[in-house]
Amino acid sequence: MKAHSAWGSSKNSIKFRIPTSDNLVPIRLDIEIDGQRFRDAFTWNPSDPDSEVVVFAKRTVKDLKLPPAFVTQIAQSIQSQLTEFRSYEGQDMYTGERVVPIKLDLRVNHTLIKDQFYWDLNNFESDPEEFARTFCKDMGIDDPEVGPAIAIAIREQLYEIAIQSVASAKESRMIKKGRKGFEHITASKTGGIAVDLVKSFGKSSVIRKRKEWDVFEPMVDLLSNEEVDALEAREERNA
Amino acid sequence: MEASNFKQSVPEEPHLDLYTIPSYSSWFQWGNIHEIERISLREFFDGSSITRTPRIYKEYRDFIICKYREDLSRRLTFTDVRKSLVGDVSTLHKVFTFLEKWGLINFSGTASSSSSSSTNALVQEKKKEVEDEKWRVRVEEGAPYGVRVVVAPNSLKTVTPPPPPLPLGVVGVSGGGEVAENGSKFPPLASYSDIYGELLLQQQQQAHQQPQGKELVLCGSCKEPCDSGHYEYIKEERFILCKKCFGNGDYGCKSVHDFKFIDGMNHIVVWTEAETLLLLESVLKHGDDWELVAQNVKTKSKLDCISKLLQLPFGDLMLGSALGKSKFWDTRADISSDGQAVPAAREFRDAVARDSQQHEHKHEDQQNAEDRGPPQKRLCTVPILDASSSLMKQVARLSAVVGPPITACAADAAVAELCYENRCSREIFDDDNFGDESGYSAQNNEERVCRVESSEGEKRPAMSELQETTPQKNVVPLTLRMRASTATCLGAAAAHAKLLADQEEREIEHLLAIVVETQLKKLQRKAKVLENLEVIMEKQHDQFSEFEEDIVAERMNVLQEIFSAGIPRWNDHTSVKSHTGNAL
């Protein structure tokens, strides 16, 4: 009943949302004013009133002692990302089985994380935050910033995939109008990035082949100060 | 279920390995998927996806558990597991936490990585529980969807030591089981008085005190009876001062410190039968004017009188017993050292006669019974019923309802229970050969009741002989008998109730059977109708397929004609399209 409804039915199309238990929008801020740079990432509940955005911006600026010019910039950035999210709301998403690989490759302060795993987009009970907590605990990561960063990275990828699937769903609808009996083609097309779990189950077992273990095994590196500096310099160059 | 150390063998390994899992997870089986798993991890069992099937769940589960058992000392983490399993991490995580919650993994592993994490805390908490409570059964708090698992391996519930073996032949007849559960504790009922406790006290006092029966405590100074308390001079045994004299300093040359106060209220309130009778009589006469009552009783204070009356089982029963015993009042009164009670007792008879018509009636009955004597069976029953008020009547009526063997068993159980209840009563039963009450009850009811009378009759002379030594003993068998018969009565009533209940149950079963039968018939009829329908459908289906064949044949004909006539191709195209449309 409850559990049943939490799983997206493969038959009916699903209205756009972040495919997790909490429909939270990942927000990423990267603002630079007068050589001062502010970067942050967090989640936002789209059902909160928009008046909260300005309040939040003011608060952040006050807490971090940023110049007041940041307030409008932060508020605008959040607002635009929310507007983008809302523009997809109400539209149909993918249909059918959707298991996607999520790849993590991020650095938080001194911690470098590489990981890969499968995520079921039809599971509306999934909880990236819980996953990140478990991850940090299992890997013995003490830095409190790592967990939220992992969760946000997952959410961003899920958000991205959800947007793509809205587009492909729209496309397939258009095609459907034009011609009949086209579903199987669009399905395979939209499923481009999705993983065919049944196929990857292999011949008889859900257990991965040994050689694949490394791919799906999380890698956590603790960097020294010099390494961090070097990495940051490289990122600067690339940017 | 039965053992907390649930032994399992890992199928991959040839030898048996013993693993410890918590008792609340004893449902776990390698070969099976339990209902708890089905409910907790519903997504694998609702067929919503081909990537979540029971088989896949079982593979996940078995892999995780095996992985854990490779090294029991290490805590298995989710991150260890997920790299080796293909599947959605959220689902895997759910399986993992489920297994962890039920202690199927990470149960015995030492919490070496005792970090502050929540799940770890849970594990530790669980461990602590286990250590603290020694495999005590826990109803899992987190049991999902209201599943409650109550396994009872070594229940810590304080088991009351089993009562001494009772000759309980009949289940549900006596309240023996209940008594055993409550540890023989009776609720403080208003109508209940601890007769045996008093008896014990009395016996002890009798044993300790002077063997010459009850005598008044007389003040050594003023020579008056000391009611409420007195001072005893330690150095000289029988020198006693009453409170008043002690207060006045009338202890002569003796030292004050050598006197020991003995509270008459608590210690020496021993009521003789005559005194009790006197008390009852006075109460009848004077009502609750306790001053007068106390005056009438003479040997006891006002407070004593009140408390005694409160302690008596209940007034009318006591009165009945008093009347029943009226026959040997005289003998007792003569023997009794308490001379004052005698005239009072005589007065009492007249008082009762005068007091109320009911009592008069009883009294007459009583005298009739006395006149006719025990040999006449039919008539004997009347006085005994009267003597013990309506109780015996009820016993007789009830035992008539349920039949002699059941009553016998009830009586057996009652006597046994009374024996078990108190050492004193057992002694009394043994002394008086009271056990024969259980023997006689096997016989015919009427006879039985008569024998109660006759056995009492037999005992009477014996008792009056006993009187000289222990005047109290006369009360004892009677009250005990009352209690025994009460218990018998209750037992018989319970048996009867059980019979009724059984009958009800049978009737209900019968009705249920009828209902089921009717339903079955209904279903059969429906099945028949459906069969008919099926036949009709089949016929129609055949017809339709014939039609179809005809139509195909016709169509072929038409097409052939068209071909032979050479009609242009566009017609052909449409027909093909419609054909594919049909196929889709």
Automatic annotation (TrEMBL), chain A:
InterPro entries: SNF5. GO terms for cellular component: nucleus. It is found in: Nucleus. It holds the Pfam family SNF5. Signal peptide: none annotated. Keywords: Nucleus, Transcription, Transcription regulation. The keyword Nucleus applies. Belongs to the SNF5 family. This is Bushy growth protein.
Automatic annotation (TrEMBL), chain B:
Keywords: Coiled coil, Developmental protein, DNA-binding, Nucleus, Transcription, Transcription regulation. Residues 351-374 have a biased composition (Basic and acidic residues). Transmembrane segments: none annotated. GO terms for cellular component: nucleus. Residues 271-305 form the Myb-like domain. SMART domains: SANT (SM00717). Pfam families: Myb_DNA-binding, SWIRM, SWIRM-assoc_1. GO terms for molecular function: DNA binding. Residues 351-377 are annotated as: Disordered. Gene3D superfamilies: Homeodomain-like (1.10.10.60), Winged helix-like DNA-binding domain superfamily/Winged helix DNA-binding domain (1.10.10.10). Residues 270-317 form the SANT domain. Residues 19-116 form the SWIRM domain. Residues 513-550 form a coiled coil. InterPro entries: Homeodomain-like_sf (IPR009057), SANT/Myb (IPR001005), SANT_dom (IPR017884), SMARCC_C (IPR032451), SWIRM (IPR007526), WH-like_DNA-bd_sf (IPR036388). The keyword Transcription regulation applies. This is SWI/SNF complex subunit SWI3A. It comes from Cinchona calisaya. The lineage of its organism: Eukaryota, Viridiplantae, Streptophyta, Embryophyta, Tracheophyta.
